Amino acid sequence: MRHVTKFCWAAVLSLTALVPAARADDYQLSHNQRISCSRGLAPGKLNTATCKSYTYLFNTKTSEYFRCQVSLALTRDNKEVINVQTDGGCTKKPRIFETDGHYDFDATETEPPNTNSFFGPGGYSIWAADMAAQKIRGCITISSGLGSDISKCLDMTFQ
What we know:
The protein has 159 residues and is mainly beta. The protein has one helix and nine strands, in the order αβββββββββ.
């Protein structure tokens, strides 16, 4: 019984030590989530609808961020749903600012191929601001059409 008590106290102490480390970074979810859907007809009078949505998760301390996407594809005939598939995940992106700080951000994205999308599925922009200084950086990422993304950031000037 004494061993169990010692083990429980050791577990509590180790968890207490981990809590500050787990809270060292704060995350903020983008406020610009979007959803886009498309429909297609397949042979045999099958209908398929595919919907995609994305958001961004931003580390307010390091300025690293993740682009997250979820999709759902539904196939049906005139009477019933035949197949439902889901997919998704988050991809880590590089830091916007080189040093740690206290940052705020927002993000937006072009819709799937349309007049705003010259070379592929579209691009996105990230705006990040240092909450302790008058410092804003805007970043735009677009597909090059050659299998890679082109990303550039610019510090804003204040006049």
